[in-house]
Every structure is written in C-alpha cells, then in structure tokens.
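EI: anyone free to look at a 449-residue chain?
SC: sure, send it
EI:
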Amino acid sequence: MHLLPHSLAVSCLLSLAAQEVFAAPSPAPTPLPRTVPLLRRSKPQLTEAERFEWLRGQRDSLKSKYGAGGANVKRASGLNLLTNQNADSSFYGSIAAGTPPISYNVILDTGSSDLWLAANDGLSASQSDGIPTFDANASSTFTDLNTPFSISYGSGAARGNLGQDSVQFAGFEVSDQVFGVVTQISNNLLTSPVSGLMGLGFKSISSSGATPLWQALAESSGTLDQPLMAFQLTRFVDVQNAQVLEPGGTFNLGAVNTSLYTGDIDYQPIPEGQEGYWIQELTGLTVNGQSVSLDAGSASYAAIDTGTTLVGGPADSIAALYAQIPGSEALTGDNAGYYTYPCDTNVTVTMKFGNSSIAWPISNADFLLMQVSGNSCVGGFFQLDTSGTSAPPWIIGDTFLKNVYSVFRASPAAVGFAQLSSTATSMNGQLGPAPSPTVGSVATVTGGS
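SC: here you go
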C-alpha cells in the first residue's frame, strides 16, 4: 500500500490484510548488528468469495501504489525484530517517536519513502479501535510544519499534516525527522496493532520530500558501520495453525547478520540514474526448468519491495510462465490478472538479476498463494501493467524475498541476495509470541466499543 506515483505496492489487503512492522531495539553501546524482529499474523479461514476479494485487494493496491492502471548516534549498526502478519501477508517492525519516546508498529516498506503515523485526533472510533495513535501534544519536542500531507493506496488514502520530531529506529535516533501525522484515513487501511508505515526507498520518490530516516543515517558520516540494511523474512503461509501474529524475522541496519546467511552476498548495482526504488534488472526467469523469455534493459526492471506480498509483471511474461504449468488457467472478470493451476502440481520458479549467474529459487510453498476451491490454487505471480507510470514493469515482493537474505546498500547503490542459513530457515513455521518493542513506552490505544 503506497503512494500513487511514488510508492511500491504494500500488500494492503482490503479488510483482510493488515500491514504492520515490528519491534525496534534499544540503542546498543557496542557496534554489533542491531536487529529488528519481525512479526507475522495467522492465516484467517476464508470463504471462496473472501479469498477472491483478498486477491483483488492485493492486485489493486499494487496497481495504485505504483500508479499502474490508474541524527544522531555513534557509528554502529542496529536491528529490529519483525512480526509476520496474516500468514506472510505483511511484515512489520517498530519505531519510537516523540519525547518521551512512545513505540509504534509500522510496515517496513522498501517500495516507498515516506514515514507516517495515525494521529489520535482524527480517526473515527471504529477506525482507531485497537490501533495505537500518535499524540503530538504529548511530545515536548514535536513541531507542526503546517504542511499538508497525503498518500494514496489501492484500498484507500491517508491525509494529514507534516510534523517533525525525534524518531528512534533499530537503535538509532534522528532528532528532527519529518513524517506525516495522519488525521484522515480510509476504512481498513490500518489494522491493529499497526499504526503506520515507514518507507525505506530513496528520497527521490518521497511524497513529502522528506529524507527517509534510513537515508539520513546513511548520509551522516560515521553513523552507520555500513550504508545498508538487510531483511530475513519468515514463512508461515503453509502452516495451518499459525496465529494472527508470529515472529517475522530480522531487520538489520548498518551491518548484515552473518548468522542468517551462508556464502557471499551477490550484489548487483542499481541501474545508473534509477535510485528511487530499489531497482534490479530481471535477466532470468524459469519455471520447472523451462526458461521464460524476457525483454532486455529497462523493459525488465524490477522494484524489490518488502511492502508487497506478491510478484507482479508484464502480461506476456506472466502468461508465458503459467504456460509451462499444466492445467493452469487465466482468471477473468474481477479477478483478471491472476492464474489458477492444480494444487497438486509442484512449481519451482527461479529468478536471476543483473549480470549474476545465480538463479534464486522460490519455494513451491511461496508460489502457491492460496487454494480457492477443490484442487484449484492461485499462483503468487500475477499480471501488472505499469505502462504510463514511473514504476518499473516488475514488482517483486515477499513471495520471492522469503527465499533469500536481502541486502539494500546505499553506496555504491545495489541490492544483494544471499542463501539463507539453517539458522534462518529453522525459524520458518516456528510458532511463537510476537516481538515486543524495546524502545519507548507502549502507545496508548484508543478506539470504539
């Protein structure tokens, strides 16, 4: 769910999906990788109609996010534990804002660049029920910038004003971070316990024009050990008894966590002049060993987007991919763009980027998005038309990212992938409590009856 021309599709799933980010750690005195634990929510039991509604919400929010179809502290590194919500639908971490610092859960989204929080004085009782909200009057360091702020998503919009205050994240603090204080929000845009969203893209695609927090830290000399951030995401999509919120993995800022991957990190540069989204050129795509033809150059640019659940791509490429899966069929009408295939078919997709020789595999568990009826399942790749927008042709979300250790490096600008370690993969499907914020007091929850 993200800003029209400037954000990547944050899987905001109508009334079914909630976007959330997770707990930020307290500042560490030593330069160890600080980690943010991610949390995930359990998979709801849905009717066939609800499943198709969810699919439409995913597709439409991605289109809208990309405009398709319509500091600080000493040199160090930090972490934030993530929360996995709704069986891999979204991953959230936590920040702390204001003085005294209050903690909030936010979606961590490499597909957009704005930070915003729901305010305590603008949401209706039904909208704010169970959602911690930001109270500007409770912070002694908050400044109202008297500048309107708005952002649109496929499933709604958020509006308010820009403010400036101290924000802590993954063990770091920016004392004058600009962010949106949202007083108007569409129904179902937020789901408890998520209070907002933190964009982790570059400033050039920021709706507000503000420098993203991560970029302010990266550009502050001597603050981070390395100008990068990294994600390890868990998988619960195939766990029937998963809870609404589960441990979601780890976010690191300023350093990588060597216990979560093996071998080398395969960095591929962002194409020259494309720093905005985290762009990679998709240069190889196979399904069950059969190659899918791809256009060269910018026609195969892809945004690597932690805020998107699925993988969207050009119609001809997606059709060619499913043509290699016996029994697959294109859905029509309201569900156009998606494909079904026999659930008992094992599907292995690989993706290759830039000049790399490595073909990264996507597990069958991640490709199989959901069963809609009988032996009919929907795949995690769907058709997306971004022509006429500033968005790239491909949007690559968590369907792929759960299968790799992903690194986003600011300088030199690149995206890197590495093979997950046994330590990382052992977290998949391991039920447990959601991580708790370790910075700031827990925000007050307001809401209706």
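EI: The radius of gyration is 20 Å.
SC: 👍
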